Amino acid sequence: MSNKPFKITFSIISISIFCYHIFNLVSLWTTIPDSIAIHFTNDTPDNWGSKYILLIMPILSIIVWFLIGILVKKPEKLNYVNLTEANKEIQFSRAEKVMILIQSFSFLFLILANEAFLRYSVGMESNIPFVTSLTLLALCLIAPIYLLIWAATLKC
Hints:
The chain has 156 residues and is mainly alpha-helical. It is built from four helices and two strands. Strand 1 (35-41) and strand 2 (44-50) form a beta hairpin.
């Protein structure tokens, strides 16, 4: 089974959101104060850092994208439950899809969390990027659990 359309779709979505974030970061750079909130307790900032911290998460997201991309290319190197000769192709295909999801969702989680920090820093408070990033993080945790349960109940 080919996962190429699946991978291309998520790559286009991820790259589009990344470009949007970089555009926002560059266009708002001069309006970002030199010191921004980097930690919150009960919705109150309690730790401050340089605005250059906003550059760390996009770089980290690219590194994560490429590292998980290595796993996507070699799904046979992962551990499996109930792997047999009869079902190995479908298990490899499903594992590859889950790894593509994790790759895209973890990338987007970091970008959208950074977008939330950026918006807060310039006074454009919006909960949508932050809530979306937390949802994507939860999906990164749920996807492999789903795959594990699916593989454990596989009848082959």
